[in-house]
Every structure is written in C-alpha cells, then in structure tokens.
Amino acid sequence: MSSKITTISRAGLNRTKVGLRNFEDANDLVCSDALKSENLKAYIPSNLLIRKGLIKGVDTYFTEEYMDDNITSKISVLDVKRLKRRINNNGVQEFVAKQMAVVTFDGNLLPNEISINSVLFQVEPFVQRVIQCYKCLRFGHVSGQCRSTHTRCVVYCQIKEEGHNCDDSNTYCLYCKNSNHRSTSKDCPPFQTQQKIKKKLWHCLT
Q: In this protein, which residues make up the domain named CCHC-type (predicted)?
C-alpha cells in the first residue's frame, strides 16, 4: 500500500489526509484490514464523490419524485430535493415549498444546466447555509447539539430566566454590541462573514 500513497498531511485533530494515485487505491485503503486491526478508519470525503447544485425558478407543483423522473443531465443525478421555507401560521410552524431545488450529482463536477420535462435550468453551486444555535446564539451547531447550560434571549441576547419576556424595543446584537438588529439577523456582519467563509470553502473544494 505504501507504494500507492502520493502525499500525507495533517487534516486536523486526530486526522490525517492521505493522497493516493487513483480511486481504486483509495477504495483499497478504505477497506484495509490493516487499518481495522489498529482501530483506525479511512473514508473518502463526500466532496470527492458528489457535488450539489442549486436550480431556481422551479414550479412548486413539481414534486421531488416528478423532478427525479423527468430530469435530464450530462452528469448522473443521484438525488433531487425541494427547498422549503418555514413560516408561522397562527402560532403553528409550517414548511412552504420554494421555487428552488438542490440536485446531487455523481462525481465532483457540476453541469452548466439541466432540464426537467424539457425546461432548462441553470445550475449554480449549492453553498450550505450558515448554522446558528438558537440556544447560545453562536455559529457552527444547532440547539440540539449545544453544550451551553444557559439559553440566551434571541431578541436581547441576555440569559433567559423564568418569566422572561422581551420585545423588539429591547433588540440588541451579541456580536455587534448595538441595538440595530438581533443576534440572529442575516444583516449582522458576523453572519455575513460566516456566509463568505462557506462560499470560499466551496471554491476550495472544487
């Protein structure tokens, strides 16, 4: 196996990036009994196996099944998912279809366009949305994964206590230290910085 390895470098805590000559060699490494005997695990990063693209202007009456059955692409399509937005309907949260869909392609290239029932759609890179915790208000995880022992108020960013009640007149941003917007606002400069990081990461992986 050592003769098949081209590069070795660190890739973070307890992780090593290994470059190999081709996909066959990579698959051999993933299935290696030698690694398993040392309680080590190898995997091929998903960005080398698939690529996700965004299409816009997709009629909302197109179901995911319909799109999957009627899509035509130069690159094999693995999956099609309709994007939805969350709304508050009289206190009940509902998800409404958007005129956008995410298409997962086999391999690490995106086609310029695809067609659904002979209608052409331009394919854009799909950049993952910024994840923000609604418990501690920090980025990079959701409330279900949060380790914080305190819950912050989304409006004012202070720690919530029993009987807590806040309105927009008390708006304050945890990051900007001013009252121009909430800590969860998409207009918040740190939020926009996180978006730029996501886009740069996508281009680094292509």
A: 133-148
- Spatial distance between the Cα atoms of 176 and 195, rounded to a whole number of angstroms: 17
Cβ-contact 92, 126 below 8 angstroms:
no
Residue located via tokens 């997709």: 58
> Cβ neighbours of residue 30 under 8 Å, at least 6 residues apart?
42, 43, 44
What is the structure's pLDDT at 205?
Answer: 53
HSE on the CB side for 132, CA within 13 Å? 21
Tokens coding 184: 């969860």
pLDDT for the residue numbered 81 = 95
* Token duo for residue 66: 């319909």
Spell out, as residue ranges, where the chain has pLDDT lower than 70.
Answer: 1, 12, 47, 156-170, 201-206
Could you tell me the maximum CA-CA distance found in the chain, to the nearest angstrom? 66
CB 101 within 8 A of CB 68: no
* CA–CA distances in Å: residue 42 to residues 33, 37, 167: 11, 12, 50
Please tell me the predicted confidence (pLDDT) of residue 64: 95
Tokens 């206590």 correspond to 161
Indicate the residue type of 178: N
* CA angle, residues 107, 109, 113, in degrees to nearest 5: 120
List the one residue out of 113, 35, 21 whose CA is nearest residue 74.
Answer: 113
SS3 26: helix
